[in-house]
Design a protein that fits this description.
heterodimer, A: alpha+beta, Nucleotidyltransferase, domain 5, Substrate Binding Domain Of DNAk, Chain A, domain 1, 5-stranded mixed sheet, globular, B: 189 residues, mainly alpha, Helix Hairpins, 2 domains, 0% strand
Chain lengths: 606, 189
């Protein structure tokens, strides 16, 4: 345990809204791993029993109707939110809940392979934001997995598909899952799977279809004068009914919905009984399907392609079983969408292929993906406090291949300007108030020069779709660097330690008695396994530069400090400078006094 | 601004410095380099090799993205030549173009988006714009024929290219607007 070898297996994981799977690539083939019951699909449900034991997957799904308040479904839709979700006596972040699902998949893989599993490629919707990607990465770490790469679901599906169908073509991947929708235009050629454009909606999926049916059923009951309490088990039954009806409507033009003794209302039993036709259902979901078709159009435009340029349509995600989806695509493209790979499994299979490539297999194609968002800055909040309305200055444009590094030069506006605030946005709108702000930071200690001091802002977007931003005074090289995902995690308050979460999740797995003894052995390994990787990781140079900037700032603020603080500040300045002079720019050694100094300065300024 | 520390994007793909390039060859070489340098191929290699592959891939992507699009290729070529318009030069307007712009704007605004004929009217505008784009690119290609390092005698030539590039950008934005209106028409959002 704890000894890493290059032959460590890397698994591929599809962490879905409704279902999750784990797969591996071996001997040029993908294999979706089964649990001890022989199941390949793990429902993405997490629950707690009366006795406080953790349930993940099918058992949690099964208790959902009886104990909705102790069961969590569709946690993926909350990923990246700064929220805590109560489960039993405790509350958890969305990453922690997702980690429980990942931990279960890891256990499944370890049991199926008979070896420890510590590395994974995890998929996310292409349209997942920076914060959502970071939350997913964090979930992996909490589950004791080193996340080797985050890849996009439609791209993973294209990889799985490519593996079986060589030859050059252009494919439209239409991926409608439980909670998210993505569409990607992909070129497959010469062992390179290249995403040309991507678009989507990270809050649109089969769950919304269920909701429409649920609303319909509640309406029906209301007409009989019955109000259903929102957190009751009756509500959970209605939701389950709606899901079942939706599924049946894929194969039948009409379904009969019957739930007897749904609840007792004003002393009399209430039964639910009605017919639902596919036609009525399709009318309910039409606005959603329209929205996906508009996104298809946007993706084609982004790829500079017309409908006629597409050779094949690939369907991914359980919700593509809806006949209306197939019909509309067929109508627009004149092609019969392909679905020969199980839409529930192809994402996990693609993740496994990617894991195979990372593990050294030459058998599969490499993947070139694009960013579905434009990233840029709006510079506001200059020294005089005059806040100008922000205009987005794009630095990395939508549909640019990653990894990518781009820089732009901006100028200061005021003579002697000492600092500049950098606000980072994600979105397409020229007015930043319509875009999503994903981070902000300040470069301090600029040279005392007239306005027009050149600041180079560099964006590095990595293969996981996560952004790192560096701002540098051109004349001196003074730099401030921030990795946006870290900035987000810190903004979300709480700032919980990953290792703390990991111990907590591992402990929950320890409490759970439904698993074999093998897993308990793995538990201790999990908490002692991979180190947390959340801390800000600076390049050696920039730590030094950042430290220098911090020292400059500290000197400037020294007058405002109390006697006690001043002594401490001077000590820290000395400590940092002696490290810098020794050239000891090892990030860990420097980081500590820098963090301490930054803390004191923070209180001084506020 | 040209970044002299970056290597020549054409050399990256072993192509001659020219506006008229064989895009098929560019694509092939781009894919071959992706295959070769992709960081996923180095996931188990040393940290130095990993860093190198990441740098190479980033460079390959940048070069590819700059060269594959004719407009950014033209912009890059002007930088490579070393031409920068003076404020006077950039204020020099092409009156014919301005007249055309006004007429096209008007035509776009006059389209009644609620009318049944809106889509065909939009399509006609799009075709007109696409023709203009193609026409301007052939002029750009002619001006770039046989390019060399910057030569003051060629200044007017590069000024015209720079002007044409700005015009193409305008036309692209115009097409984006047409797209947006069309999407609203088709999908009612």
């Amino acid at each position: 345990m704890g000894i890493e070898s290059v032959n460590d297996i890397i698994v591929g994981i599809d962490l879905g809204t409704t279902n999750s799977e784990v797969a591996i690539f071996e001997n040029g083939q993908t294999r979706v791993l089964t649990d001890q019951q022989g199941e390949r699909i793990l429902p993405s449900f997490v629950g707690i029993t009366d006795a406080g034991a953790l349930l993940v997957g099918r058992p949690a799904l099964n208790q959902y109707v009886a104990n909705p308040e102790r069961t969590i479904k569709s946690i993926k839709r909350r990923m990246g939110e700064a929220t805590r979700i109560s489960l039993g006596k405790n509350s958890y972040s969305p990453s922690e809940i997702s980690a429980m699902i990942l931990r279960q998949l890891r256990d499944t893989a370890e049991a199926a392979l008979g070896q420890p599993v510590r590395k994974a490629v995890i998929t996310v919707p292409a349209y997942f934001s920076d914060a959502q990607r970071q939350a997913t990465r964090e979930a992996g770490e909490i589950a004791g997995l080193e996340v080797m790469r985050i890849i996009n679901e439609p791209t993973a599906a294209a990889l799985a598909y490519e593996a079986g169908h060589r030859g050059s073509r252009r494919v439209l991947v239409y991926d409608l899952g439980g909670g998210t929708f993505d569409v990607s235009v992909v070129r497959i050629e010469d062992d390179v799977v290249e995403v040309v454009s991507s678009h989507g909606n990270n809050h649109l999926g089969g769950d919304d279809f269920d909701q429409k049916i649920v609303a319909h059923l509640l309406d029906h009951l209301k007409q009989q004068g019955v109000q259903v309490p929102t957190t009751s088990s009756a509500m959970a039954r209605i939701i389950r009914c709606a899901e079942a009806a939706k599924r049946q409507l894929s194969d039948h033009v009409e379904v009969q919905i019957d739930e007897e003794y749904l609840l007792e209302y004003k002393g009399r039993p209430v039964h639910l009984s009605l017919e639902l036709s596919r036609r009525d259902y399709e009318e309910m979901i039409q606005p959603y399907i329209d929205e996906t078709m508009a996104a298809v159009h946007t993706a084609l435009n982004g790829a500079n392609m017309t409908v006629a340029a597409i050779d094949e349509i690939l369907l991914v995600g359980g919700s593509t079983r809806t006949p209306m989806v197939r019909e509309r695509l067929q109508e627009v493209f004149g092609l019969i969408p392909r679905g020969e790979i199980d839409p529930d499994l192809c994402v996990a299979m693609g993740a496994a292929i990617h894991a195979g490539v990372m593990g050294g297999s030459k058998a599969a194609a490499v993947l070139v993906d694009v960013t579905p968002y434009t990233f840029g800055i709006g510079v506001v909040g200059m020294l005089d406090g005059d806040i100008r309305p922000g205009v987005l200055s794009p630095i990395i444009r939508k549909n640019t291949s990653v990894p990518v590094s781009r820089s732009e030069i901006y100028m200061t506006m005021i003579d002697g300007q000492e600092r500049v605030g950098i606000d980072v946005y994600q979105g397409e709108h020229p007015d930043v108030s319509y875009d999503v702000q994903i981070g902000s930071f300040t470069v301090e200690g600029l040279s005392d020069v007239p306005a027009g001091n050149e600041i180079v802002v560099q964006f590095d977007l990595n293969l996981d779709g996560m952004l790192q931003v560096t701002a540098r005074e051109k004349s001196t090289g003074l730099a401030k660097q921030v990795t946006i995902d870290n900035a987000m995690t810190q903004q979300e308050g709480g700032k919980r330690d990953v290792s703390q979460s990991r111990d907590q999740v591992a402990a929950l797995f320890g409490q759970s008695n439904k698993r074999g003894t093998e897993d308990n052995r793995a538990d201790s390994g999990g908490s002692a396994g991979t180190p947390p990787r959340i801390e800000v990781q600076f390049e050696t140079d920039s730590v030094a530069q950042q430290a220098a900037a911090l020292v400059t700032k500290a000197r400037r603020l020294l007058d405002q400090a109390t006697e006690a603080d001043r002594i401490e500040i001077v000590d820290l300045i000395d400590a940092i400078q002696s490290l810098l002079e020794k050239g000891d720019t090892d990030s860990a050694a420097l980081q500590k006094p820098c963090d301490q100094l930054a803390d004191i300065l923070f209180y001084l300024e506020t | 601004m040209a970044n002299p520390s970056r290597s020549n994007f054409f050399a990256q793909f072993d192509l001659p410095v020219a506006f008229a390039i064989d895009v098929g060859v560019l694509e092939q070489r781009y894919r071959a380099q992706q295959q070769h340098w992709h960081p996923d191929r180095f996931a188990t290699a040393s940290a130095t090799e990993q860093e190198h592959s990441l740098q190479q891939t980033t460079l390959v992507n940048e070069a590819w993205q700059t060269l594959r699009d004719p407009l950014s290729r033209a912009t890059y070529l002007l930088q490579w030549i070393g031409y920068q318009p003076t404020p006077e030069e950039s204020g020099d307007h092409d009156t014919d173009f301005l007249m055309q712009v006004m007429a096209e704007r008007e035509a776009l605004e006059e389209i009644d988006v609620t009318a049944g004929s809106a889509l065909s009217q939009l399509e006609a505008l799009r075709q007109q714009m696409e023709q203009e784009i193609a026409h301007a690119f052939s002029e750009i290609a002619a001006l770039f024929a046989g390019i060399q390092e910057f030569n003051p005698a060629d200044r007017q030539r590069w000024q015209r290219v720079s002007q044409l590039i700005d015009q193409q950008r305008y036309r692209q934005r115009f097409l984006e607007q047409v797209d947006q209106i069309e999407e609203q028409q088709l999908y009612g959002r």
